[in-house]
Every structure is written in structure tokens, then in C-alpha cells.
């Protein structure tokens, strides 16, 4: 299971919301974090979130040990199974 952790603050809510639009992705809560999980890759389009670059580049709190970030640029965030 690929998991991405994002701090649950108002600035990051759109990241979790856009991730949840993918039917293969589950968004839950672990403490003060959104836990965004999927059996395969997680891909979040930055423009769909409406996040400015500063928020976008600082939204990642962590990645589960079974995943790795393969893209994090101005276009998208992609976490794939390791």
C-alpha cells in the first residue's frame, strides 16, 4: 500500500480533496495528518488543487515505507510503490 501523509491544515485540504477524487485512492485521518493511500500510484495534479507553489512544495509531511516520490514538480505529485 502506497501512503502519502499531508498535514491537515486549511492550506492542504485541496490536496486531499483532489486525491480523493481518484476512485483507487482512499483518504483517511491519522492524528493531525491526512493519510492518502492506494494499492498503486498516487497522482495529484497541482493545478486541480489550486495550490500556490509555496504551499504545493511544502505539503508533504511524509511517505510510507512502501512508497517513494517519483515526481514533485510544478505539474504534479506522484508517489509510487517502492
What does this entry look like structurally?
With 82 residues, the protein is α+β, with helices and mostly antiparallel strands. The chain has one domain (2-81): Monooxygenase component MmoB/DmpM (Phenol Hydroxylase P2 Protein, Alpha-Beta Complex), CATH 3.90.56. Helices cover 22% and strands 46% of the residues. The protein is built from three helices and seven strands. A hairpin with a 2-residue loop joins strand 2 and strand 3.
Structure summarized in a few sentences:
The chain has 82 residues and is an alpha+beta fold.
Distance between the first and last residues' Cα = 10 Å
State the domain count.
Answer: 1
On the 0 to 100 scale, the average pLDDT is 97
The radius of gyration is 11 Å
CATH superfamily placement? Monooxygenase component MmoB/DmpM
Given helix and strand content, the structural type is alpha+beta
How do the strands line up in the largest sheet?
2-3-1-5
Q: Which word captures the global form?
A: globular
State the CATH architecture.
Alpha-Beta Complex
Number of DSSP strand runs = 7
* Beta-strand residue fraction: over 45%
Contiguous runs where pLDDT drops below 50 for at least 5 residues: none
CATH fold-level name: Phenol Hydroxylase P2 Protein
Tell me about the largest β-sheet.
Answer: 4 strands, antiparallel
Amino acid at each position: 500500500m502506497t501512503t502519502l501523509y499531508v498535514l491537515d491544515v486549511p492550506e492542504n485540504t485541496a490536496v486531499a480533496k483532489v486525491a480523493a477524487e481518484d476512485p483507487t485512492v482512499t483518504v483517511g485521518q491519522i492524528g493531525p495528518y491526512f493519510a492518502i493511500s492506494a494499492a498503486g500510484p498516487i497522482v495529484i495534479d497541482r493545478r486541480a488543487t489550486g495550490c500556490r507553489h509555496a504551499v504545493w512544495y511544502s505539503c508533504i509531511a511524509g511517505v510510507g515505507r512502501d512508497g517513494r516520490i517519483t515526481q514533485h514538480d510544478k505539474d504534479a505529485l506522484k508517489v509510487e510503490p517502492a
